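Entry 14: structure prediction run for Formylglycine-generating enzyme family protein. Input pasted below.
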Amino acid sequence: MRMVPIPPGSVTLTDRRTERSWTVDVPAFELGAIPVTDEQYRDGGELPAVEVSWLDAVRFCNTLSERDGLLPAYRLDGSEVEWNRAASGYRLPTEAEWEHACRAGTEGPRYGDLDEIAWYEGNSGGRLHPPGEKRPNAWGAYDLLGNSWDWCWDLYDPAVYGEYRVLKGGGWADEHWSVRVSVRRRSHPTFRVDDVGFRVARS
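Run finished. Output tokens:
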């Protein structure tokens, strides 16, 4: 699992639905250079692993940690998941970590020209592509925008949406306006669909 180092920093997150903004300090961490692939997830091919639920992704993080001799980040009890933040194992990035890593020191809606960095509705040909074919951001991460959405650890808005978790990044079927750093989507932790996958992080 190739990881890239993400330096510490702070990021201001925004929610267009509620018009709320909040700033989060992000310690240094590591992030997968590309999304988890079918080869890694289900002994398949080189495409990003999609049709993966949030709970599937959490379980895979623990399996990967155990394989690599690391302390798993999550304790699972059915659908209840507790994150041990002191653990050395793989985990999902928080929304703030994901957005800080995606921006890579930039401040605009994207870290580069859309067609150069992302597969989306305008250039994907209606399908997923192998990760790493587009230009990476300044910190060496590929496909943070476009191709497949990434699950994040965070609850989206528990007062309104309950257990729904945050999705970031946009996918191959999304129009250009949806493939931006600040866009946040939500879904139920058991939901699986053909444009949602994940990438791993480590503290």
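Notes: The longest helix spans residues 54-67. Will compare against the previous run tomorrow.
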